[in-house]
Design a protein that fits this description.
Layout (H helix, E strand, L loop, with lengths): L12 H8 L8 H11 L9 E5 L5 H8 L3 E6 L2 H13 L5 E4 L14 E5 L7 H14 L5 E7 L10 E4 L2 E3 L12 E2 L6 H4 L4 E12 L4 E11 L9
Parallel strand pairs: 1-2, 1-4, 2-3, 4-5
Antiparallel strand pairs: 5-10, 6-7, 7-8, 9-10
Amino acid sequence: MPEHGNESTWDPLWEQIFQSGEWGKYPPEHVIRFVARNFYRVTDRGKVNLLEIGCGPGANVWFMAREGFTVSGIDGSSTAIEKAGQRLASEGIAADLRVGDFARLPWPDDSFDGAVENVSLYTNPWTSIQRALCEVRRVLKPGAPFLSTFFTDRTWGYGLGDLVETDGFVNLRQGPLAGVGFCLFLKRARVPDLFRGFSEVNVERISWSLDGEQHLVEQFVIKCRKPGAGNARD
């Protein structure tokens, strides 16, 4: 999650954000649905290896670990990883949690049966997102499913900051993303290019309003697969 032009996919601003706030204790419905549709029919869930990119304080890894899957997670914030580990330990469950860079994932090729990324990559410039997605594809097993979520260009705040690249802004003055550093809002027409290395790319939208329906927040929920023959199917 970098400042624009940095080769890393980590902006230290997020360390401050995770230190100062509490949020994200429970997984969103689209993550639950993705995991359930792809993996709930597996008899031995412990043999299913799942990964979260940008796990933050652990809402999704907590959910997947509680459901009996073998779970790994990565985030650039040591505070977030510490909070996630403490939460899991308090309930007697565990996950492989790492502090690291999304563009240099510390796992071997073909390690995971599935992966999720819930509005974490959007904090990176386009080229950094591309590198991170290449890494996601590398560590997934052939045919494995991937869920990714981005704020769309219809989200409140788009255009209300300093433009530093196409659809990428810093210093947002309004909206739910104000104060979080760089934000890339995704246009529907750019999805095929960003996810061109994946197969079966399916795009849906979720949205909600704020301030008495004065403002819109909208996300793309993108489901796809690493090309190849996999065992898990929707």
